[in-house]
Amino acid sequence: MGLLLLLTSTLLSSYFHPGSVVNAQHMFTIRDISLSVEPSTDVTRGTNVTVRCQVTVSSSGQEALSREYTIFKDGSIVYTKTTSSSEDFLYLLPEARVSNSGKYKCKINIEGKQSTSDAKKLSVTGLSKPDLHLNKGVVTEGEELTARCMAPGETGSIFFYFYDNSEEVQEKRVNSNQAVAELRFSSIGNHKIHCAYTVLITPDSFKSEESNSVTVSVKEISITPVLEISPQYKIFEGDRLNIFCSVQTSQHSTENMLLYLSEGTSLLSSGTTKVNHSMVALAKAAGLMFECRMEMGHLVKTATKTLPVTELFSAPTLTMSPAEVFQREPMTLTCKSESFASERLQRKELTYTLYSLGNPLNSGDTGVFSGKALQHEFNYTCTARAKGIEKHSETLTVRPRVFVSAPKISVYDKAILGKPIQILCESDTGSLPINYTLWKGYHTEGTTRVQMPFQKALFTVSISKPEELNKYMCEANNGREEGLLGARLTANVTVPLTHAMLSVLPALQDISEEGHLNLICSVQGTPPVTFKWYRVGDPQPLNATTSDNVYKDYEFPVISKAHSGKYYCEAFNHANNIVRSNEVTVEVRMAVWKKALIGGICLLIVTVLVLVFGLYFRSKRESLRALNQMTL
């Protein structure tokens, strides 16, 4: 019974206090957790910083709780410890550095129940001055020295930068407070070396001041590359060049030495102590640029020369005459070098060749070729030759124009009498631009130039009679001496509706009950026509229909007195003008049989009345006679 009461009490406590944790011995709840930074959240380098985590826990038992503390810096775990002490948890940062800057949080875990504090940001300012050391103060060209840059007391991810005469030469990223770089120098003289570093704390970075400056003396090695070219002056295309690459040294060994002779990006020759090359000079806009390069270990020395070469003749240009040509029409292609070196070459020594696969042209004068244009575009190139030198023209693409075909004429959209009409002129084939001219009989109405593929040649006209439309024609021209004239325009003209009239059958005086009624609506204009019949006072039409005639009827098969009233009709066609008819008053008369019936009934009543009165008077007379007899 006691156990049951204990379980019941425990369950009730859990139900009414959901933030509490209960076991068989005691229960507890984490009431609050906070984090503070001492002595301040903004400190200078070297300050002893304490990150304090304060937790308030309410517990029913006397036994100490096992507490697991976790410290986070910028979302990452930096320290974890388990303790049973209820004192504040301290995370110490002795002599804080910039790398200790960041957002700190504290989390506590007691028997599975967790709570996390708000974040506090610690900012540490100030970096130590970097210290630079070199293993040598004097080196020769290409010799390697070791530079060590240190950031005393700093921690974290650090970028180190090494400078030669204020120009950055190397960058190193390390996770320690020093970095080593191997440096080499290609220029002689004194070099001032210093370093600096940057501590990376995402998303920020902090850069140090510059280190001490150390002077390095670089001595020259007495080895010099020599570049010789023969001839050196007044060089023309086609001349033979001899190029020599060697080294000049007094004492230094040439062991492990390599020589490279190049022109631009082309390697001409290579060797150990001396290399040479022979070539035909070719003209270039910037001249021929030669380099003699010596490599010996890490030492590199070069000698360069730029050699101007006079052009023997210019690259040919290929032109066409006339500038535009139609299919199958004669054309002339001319290949010509505009300039040549008259002191070395005569014009007649230049020869020209035309390349036109599949369409050879006839050769006339030097560089002149004639023939007929193809029906499709074609590419031509030509070559000029003299004294073993060949130069090619740029490709000339001949795109023969296509004569325009006879134009077609049509109405664009609709032709409505009395309104502006747009007439379209177009040809199935023909190269742009095309000039379209609209004719009316023997007079021109205007010209439109079509220059784009989707552009339309539209003309706006007005006519007073439908037959006027058949007088229009189109003319097209894109280069002929005379344009091509197309056929005359054939198109339907919509005449707007007029003179709407409503009539009835049978005649108004003959309309009677149980008969039929036809409402006939007629107009003048161009069908098809849409007719609508209305009864005055009713906005909805009685009927609507479209007819290919200019008249249409609407029939009431059987009518009654209820059909009496006023009627009218409306009509419209493709001109979209609505016309309304006159109003017709319809009075439905009584049916004939009803009239005959009423007449017969009246006659019958009269007859009965006459018969009744006759019998009555007869009976009266006989009564009087009998009375007289009785009296006698």
Provide structural commentary.
This protein has 6 domains: 28-125, Immunoglobulin-like, CATH 2.60.40.10; 131-219, Immunoglobulin-like; 223-307, Immunoglobulins (Immunoglobulin-like, Sandwich), CATH 2.60.40.10; 316-398, Immunoglobulin-like, CATH 2.60.40.10; 408-488, Immunoglobulin-like; 498-586, Immunoglobulins (Immunoglobulin-like), CATH 2.60.40. Strand 25 (288-296) and strand 26 (299-307) form a beta hairpin. By secondary structure, the protein is mainly β. The strands form 12 sheets. Strands 3, 5, 6, 8, 9 and 10 form a 6-stranded mixed β-sheet that branches. Strands 12, 14, 15, 17, 18 and 19 form a 6-stranded mixed β-sheet that branches. The radius of gyration is 58 Å and the shape is flat. 9% of the residues lie in helices and 49% in strands.
